[in-house]
What does this fold into?
Amino acid sequence: MGQGEFSLIERFLSHFPRAKVQVGPGDDCAVLAPGKGAQCVTIDALVEDVHFTRAHFTPEDIGHKALAVNLSDLAAMGARPRWFLCALALPRELPRRALLGLARGMSALAEEHGIALVGGNFTSARELSITITAAGELRTSPITRSGGRPGDVLYVSGTLGEARLGLLHLQEGRRRSSAILRQKRPRPRVALGLLAARFASAGLDISDGLAQDLGHLCRASGTGAELGLSLLPLSPAVRAALGPQGALAGGEDYELLLAIPPSRTSAFERACGRAGERVTRIGQLTGGPPGLIRELGGRSLRLPAGFDHFRNGRTD
Ligand SMILES: [Mg+2]
It folds into this structure.
């Protein structure tokens, strides 16, 4: 970015507390706390006109969401968020107050989850994009996609389809709805991920829609699955506007999909109840052909394709 880069970086950094690491932002690398592993590392980018538009999202929304999608990946592994790096590509005409709004949205979520900004990069670009690398610590074995076994019970957190409905509301020109809030400000299920790590055989976060993401889990685990469409947790608004089939394709929910061995389901449900985490039993893994998803009772499920962002499809 050249001239003015340093003061801009300093102003951006002033939104974040000093990270408790050996070397934080400002050097060529961050040096993380020795002896503590950042075993779990993820990266995700949020790109203007693909994942958001500046007409619909405030800078605070964009900052929140850029970090939230990474926290959701850490949550899906059962990791405790620790550190993140942030690369910003900024259009020249982007007002400074927008950059600082972005920092505010991001730092508020970072504080909530105790994750420290330890470095990053600024560059100029035609479109605004934010790429974040986040690292977390594991205290148990990670929750992977591949550990599921036939008979494991499938649970999802929260409700499904809300973010997709929010996107439709925005495209219809609506400014405010609870679904729009879910689209702009997803809540990563970090606490549930930490809890679930004690119980789950497999899991992932739902970024591409339940149908696609369950397919990923099944193929990695070498299982099929049975799903109860009538069991899916849907808000009345999603039930009316999308129905269960539409909710299956609903991307960007950032809820967790978890497989729990049958001997552990009661303890898991009790632990969720105590922690105030809403989870719903939606089906089970089967020995069926890997990746094949049937409706409970046997009918093969007509699986919807993934969802569209504002312009491009998402492939990750
Ligand atoms: Mg993920």
